């Protein structure tokens, strides 16, 4: 199986990004949104990203189709957090476990680090053994759990938070 290609998101990717996000909003607790985003909302969100900053939005493409995306987001608005980002990854549910998430994270870590990111954070809504294992595989370590701090579908949700430093130049996260 060939690895998907990874590139910066483009305006034409908005329908696929919207569909992927809608799946997770409607069928999982991995995002705390309760209403799927519209294409206009996703378009506005994608316009916030640039290839020239630590905040990146990358897509994985296989056979011409966007099959997933990953982003580095500003962690907090204060200058003390300028070198810290929060990462997230979402894949087409029919195309998981094929290497796209790893390809996205490897490239995202490298690109963001080149722009000065020193600390990478990721929150995993529980239970989600696959995401916990994925983050550990990519060098993240568990730093704590917020217990029952969110609520979706009349259910309390806990999240474990992970952290890692910037990859070494020769690291294949």
Describe the model.
This protein has four helices and seven strands; from the N terminus they run βααβββαβαββ. The chain has helices at 14-27, 39-46, 100-114, 129-137, and strands at 5-8, 57-62, 65-74, 84-91, 119-125, 141-152, 155-165. Strand 6 (141-152) and strand 7 (155-165) form a beta hairpin. The longest helix has 15 residues, at 100-114. The two termini are 20 Å apart. The model has no long low-confidence stretch (mean pLDDT 91).
SSE blueprint and pairings:
Elements (H helix, E strand, L loop, with lengths): L4 E4 L5 H14 L11 H8 L10 E6 L2 E10 L9 E8 L8 H15 L4 E7 L3 H9 L3 E12 L2 E11 L8
Parallel strand pairs: 4-5
Antiparallel strand pairs: 1-2, 2-3, 3-4, 5-7, 6-7
Short description:
This protein is of the alpha+beta class and 173 residues long. It has a single domain (5-165), classed as Aminopeptidase.
Number-wise, the strands total 7
Terminal Cα span: 20 Å
Strand order of the largest sheet: 1-2-3-4-5-7-6
Annotated CATH topology: Aminopeptidase
Provide the structure class: alpha+beta
User: What is the helix tally?
Assistant: 4
Envelope shape: globular
> Considering DSSP H and I runs of 4 or more, what fraction of the residues is helical?
25-40%
Order of helices and strands: EHHEEEHEHEE
* Average of the residue pLDDT scores: 91
The multimeric state of the shown protein is: single chain
Number of domains: 1
What profile does the largest beta sheet have? 7 strands, mixed
User: Which spans of ≥5 residues are poorly predicted at pLDDT below 50?
Assistant: none
Please state the CA-atom Rg, rounded to the nearest Å.
Answer: 15 Å
**CATH architecture tag:** 3-Layer(aba) Sandwich
Strand content: 25-35%
